[in-house]
Amino acid sequence: MMQLVEDHRFTTDTERARRIDALRAAMTSHGLDALVIAGRDDIRFRGRVFYATDYWQLFADSHVVLTHTSGPVLIGGTVWGISQARQSSWISECRLSGTSGTEIGNVLAEQGLSASTIGVVGLLDGGFAYSHYTQLVDALPDSRIRDATDLFEQCRQVNSAESLASMTDTSACWNSIYAELEAFVNPGVTEISLAAQAHRICREHGVRDPMVVLDSTPFKGATTFGTQKVIEHGDVVTVWIESAGPNGTWLEYRRMYSVGPVSPEYRDAWQIYTEAHQAGVAAMRPGAMASEFVEGVATVFRSHGIELDYTNPADQHRSFHLHGIGTDAIQGVWVSGNDRILLEHEVVNIHPHRLFPTAEATAKFGLFGLTDNILVTPGGGRWMTNDQHLTSAFIEL
């Protein structure tokens, strides 16, 4: 096997053992002989392979096979290959195949598991391609294939001290990026130029595959990647970065800028937003439902005469308000849509949305608000990237 390249080491062998042991224990409790973990170039799925192998995949498909006695075995596709995967000392074997489902079957057959019970991570949520599923069925017609997505996500929901330290490092990276970017938030700069500066700074800080969403007043009512609109004195500017940091851990964070003094209407709105978010975060204790955060936010908004889209059951599908984050940008808990019990040391990202009754209100407040990463603790949620007073998330320049 190729010698490990030090720059590609993300996590320790201790962390590897913790994750693999947890997955195998979950396999035992669910009666699985093997686990197949599917990864794709999607911010919901690529980190699943990373979690189990310490190999950070940029794009295309890859799969991991884990049994009770062997693995992880990585099967890479022909689009991206396996050269980078071979640099991970976590992986026991790397294989290259244009028919990954068939090769998964070969791996299991070689281990005497042709008629076994196989759990597939991604079977029901789009992570495991249908073509690979049919190949696997054809390769192992006597096997029993079960969905194991929830099994995997429940393991990934629990962070160790090491994985939390990685997120803390990514938070520090994000704060450095924004501090450097603020010099470019000036009257006369176009949105697209500011977005380009954000991409450059992210890359220079080692950020992997950065996604920068940017908008300025009058807000357009939908997220953009920047336009030719010129930022002027008096504008409010939103910069929203979602990516994996240099250590491979994802975080999502938004800052707001007032180009010139903050007007009273934005100052008042910010006070309501911070009060609402603090109330929601305070409810984020182990054993609480993720939706308790949503209700905490909504209660404060209602007290100010504001109804949010998710207070109406018919509108709950319109936006995310809370989701797990870590080795993927979106993992585990999704609210609205997939409510779950919060666990101690879990990290979630919050960004409640508002819908506005008029185009004028949307232009003023459409992309105005808070986005941050929250650690679940017995004393309530702890802000990871921002400070407890939230003053650094809306800055007067």
How would you describe this structure to a colleague?
The chain folds into two domains: 6-156, Creatinase/prolidase N-terminal domain (Creatine Amidinohydrolase, Chain A, domain 1, 3-Layer(aba) Sandwich); 161-396, Creatinase/methionine aminopeptidase superfamily (Creatine Amidinohydrolase, Alpha-Beta Complex). The protein has a six-stranded mixed sheet, with helices on both faces. A five-stranded antiparallel sheet has the order 11-10-12-13-14. The radius of gyration is 22 Å and the shape is elongated. A hairpin with a 5-residue loop joins strand 2 (62-67) and strand 3 (73-76). It has helices at 13-29, 46-53, 100-110, 130-139, 149-156, 161-181, 191-204, 264-282, 291-303, 359-365; strands at 34-39, 62-67, 73-76, 93-96, 117-121, 144-147, 208-216, 236-244, 250-258, 322-324, 331-335, 347-350, 372-375, 382-383, 394-396. The model is unreliable at 1-6 (pLDDT under 50). Helix 3 runs parallel beside helix 4 (130-139). The protein is 32% helix and 19% strand. The termini are far apart. It is an alpha/beta fold and 397 residues long.
